[in-house]
């Protein structure tokens, strides 16, 4: 917190500094708990699943996890159904993911569409190159949506766009106009596939500008396109310097209408191990502490959790006994 950083900036002995930080952290957690105990104890209402080839041999186990965690009322967000050349929903109908979801049916599905694996690189390129990539992504996503609707029509309640929006790469008016045009075109095309389905998209912040500016940007995009934001808090991610998460969430809560966003807790800790990035399951205490930040900042619990792979690493098969390596 800002208070902890301010105090530890004073020249105190290292042991005393550590003690001060621990005391302030405990006080912050106590305040959050007592400010909204019902908020803190609220169970997650939405779960993400990031399909990966490691799950292919665990389809029956995945079906059981889905039934146990979701029942028939909690939404499952598929992060994507096709990622680059990895097609998790083949047109033959014999895909392991489709089989697992059918065995767990009926489900409340928010179906992820197509993600071009060049998206992150395109963000660092010119507006023209990014525009061309988004145009191709729209075409592929609409094709994917038609296929998904035909293959598994029951349970589909919304779409999810896998491209994530941050506070670094969309700062200029030109980029923001490009995003709005992309989303409006995609909304029109997806509406022709199946009318009336909401569209969700993730956003996150890294402290690359003011919280007020980023919140206003999210509000404007929502007002112009109807996009419902799934807001990542970034508490499991290594960020240097770390942004003031409490401040960002509070400003977003004060700026956006309640129906414009859904909070998301990341159920992992990012670690660097021998030059490799790993995403290791966070402890129950850590997840509770992260929820406390949401409750203190917004007065409402984060409804979504990313992801089932961290909550149930056994669905990764051979990878169950190690942290999930970055893909």
Outline the structure in words.
It contains 12 helices and 14 strands. The chain has 327 residues and is α/β, with parallel strands linked by helices. Helix 7 runs parallel beside helix 8. The longest helix has 25 residues, at 127-151. The protein is globular and about 45 Å long. Mean pLDDT is 88; it is low at 1-27.
Structural class, by secondary structure, is alpha/beta
Shape: globular
Q: In what order do the strands lie side by side in the largest sheet?
A: 1-2-5-7-8-9-10-13
Distance between the termini: 32 Å
Q: What is the H/E order? A: HHHEHEEEHEEHHEHEHEHEEEHEHE
Average the pLDDT over all residues and give the rounded result.
Answer: 88
Question: How many strands in all?
Answer: 14
Largest sheet: 8 strands, parallel, barrel
Radius of gyration: 20 Å
Number of helices: 12
Low-confidence stretches: 1-27
Gist of the model:
This protein has helices at residues 2-8, 14-35, 37-40, 59-70, 96-104, 119-123, 127-151, 173-193, 211-225, 245-255, 284-298, 308-311, and strands at 46-49, 75-78, 82-83, 86-87, 108-112, 114-115, 156-165, 199-203, 228-232, 261-266, 268-273, 276-281, 304-306, 324-325. It is of the alpha/beta class.
Name the features:
3-stranded mixed beta sheet; 327 residues; disordered N terminus; 8-stranded parallel barrel; alpha/beta
């Amino acid at each position: 917190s800002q208070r902890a950083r301010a105090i530890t900036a004073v020249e105190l002995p290292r042991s005393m500094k550590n003690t001060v930080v621990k005391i302030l952290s405990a006080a912050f957690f106590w305040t959050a708990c007592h400010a909204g105990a019902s908020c803190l104890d609220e169970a997650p209402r939405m779960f993400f699943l990031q399909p990966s080839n490691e799950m292919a041999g665990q389809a029956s186990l995945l079906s059981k996890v889905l039934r146990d965690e979701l029942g028939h009322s909690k939404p499952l967000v598929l992060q994507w159904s096709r990622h680059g050349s990895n097609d998790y929903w083949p047109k033959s109908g014999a895909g392991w993911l489709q089989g697992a979801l059918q065995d767990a049916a009926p489900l409340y599905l928010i179906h992820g569409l197509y993600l071009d694996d060049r998206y992150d690189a395109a963000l660092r390129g010119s507006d023209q190159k990014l525009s061309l990539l988004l145009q191709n992504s729209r075409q592929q996503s609409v094709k994917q949506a038609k296929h998904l609707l035909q293959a598994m029509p029951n349970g589909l309640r919304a779409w999810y766009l896998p491209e994530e929006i941050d506070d670094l790469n969309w700062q200029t008016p030109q980029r923001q106009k490009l995003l709005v045009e992309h989303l409006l075109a995609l909304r029109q095309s997806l509406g022709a596939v199946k009318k009336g389905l909401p569209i969700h998209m993730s956003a996150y912040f890294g402290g690359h500008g003011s919280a007020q500016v980023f919140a206003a940007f999210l509000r404007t995009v929502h007002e112009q396109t109807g996009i419902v934001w799934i807001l990542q808090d970034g508490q499991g991610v290594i960020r240097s310097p770390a942004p003031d998460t409490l401040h960002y969430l509070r400003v977003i809560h004060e700026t956006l209408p309640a129906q414009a966003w859904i909070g998301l807790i990341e159920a992992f800790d990012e670690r660097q191990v021998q030059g490799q990035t790993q995403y290791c399951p966070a402890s129950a205490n850590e997840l509770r502490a992260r929820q406390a930040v949401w409750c203190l900042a917004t007065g409402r619990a984060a409804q979504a959790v990313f992801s089932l792979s961290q909550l149930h690493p056994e669905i990764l098969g051979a990878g169950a006994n190690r942290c999930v390596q970055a893909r």
